[in-house]
What we know:
There is one protein chain. It contains 12 helices and 8 strands. By secondary structure, the chain is of the alpha+beta class. The protein folds into 2 domains: 130 residues, no CATH class; 172 residues, no CATH class. Strand 7 and strand 8 form a beta hairpin. The longest helix has 17 residues. InterPro entries: Rhs_assc_core (IPR022385), T6SS_VgrG/RHS (IPR050708), TEN-like_YD-shell (IPR056823).
Amino acid sequence: FYLFTDHLGSTVVLTKDSDGYILADSLTRYMPFGEYRGTAPSQAMTDQGYTGQKENMEIGLIYYNARFYVPGIGRFASADTIVPNPTNPQSFNRYSYVRNNPINFSDPTGNIPCETLGTEACTVDGEYVDFQSQEKQYDVTEWLASEMVINVNGPEMAAIQNIFQQPKNSTPMNGTTGIMPDTRFLEVLAGPFYELNKGFGLWDIKRKMKTAIGEGITLCGLDGCGWFDYSTPGNIHFGFIAAATDIPKGLSLFAGGALEIKEGSAIVSNWQTLFEDPRDWAAVQFGYQLYETYGSDMVLNEFQTALTADIRATFQPSPISVPSQALAQRNGFSPGAFNYQGQ
């Protein structure tokens, strides 16, 4: 589904698709400090509510990264760790929210009202402008979580599922990998799955991502963010789709190593992972884990819950010097934004 927001980034309505079909009971209105105006929406649809932050309806709190906010009283649950603007007396009330001006400002970091940064994007749109005023988006967390679900439920998967309706056959055991693959898996790998995920295939998202963002991208779990190689989202996406297709991990590893060899990027020391970079393989395995745990209707909160610091540490880091600390940004990328279509 698609989220539509107001001027502060608060989710006000959800639609089933881009055609604008409004989901029942999704229309939401807020009081100035974040209380619901009328009936609260179902959190099963989305946990992004007031100013786009994560809500926990069971305890009535909203997560603002640095601390929790209590909309019922218009105050944070804990004191600010800084005084963002000593020249403004309101800043010395370290529990107050956006200096008691919630109509015009938001505080996505939980530390500093957007207006202090002096950016239009912050004061008008309530963006996650912790750095660079959203002039360039590096954070692809929200986009990736949504894209995997869209694609795994999309029409491209139909051809793959048709193959699995055919009779099952097996090939002889492979002495190197120990794999006895169902021949349907081989047909998928050599057919529609390969066409979608091969170099310069539709879902070879790393190429367009490198062009649009650069060699370093950001991914954020609930416990923090990190800078990673631009290929990481594509590897996670690959694993998610492969898991949905029931392709064994061993075959995916073999396919990844074959691609490394074909593109001339294979390293001899990676022979234990069939020449696939172990850090790339870690991202693919994470994609498998996501699908096996949450299935085809995974939501952003589940994705970020799984994306722990320990998991992030296994990914391939950014190959370039990063421009700043890795912080969350609101998503501005549309579905299919990085599909490769010969451009």
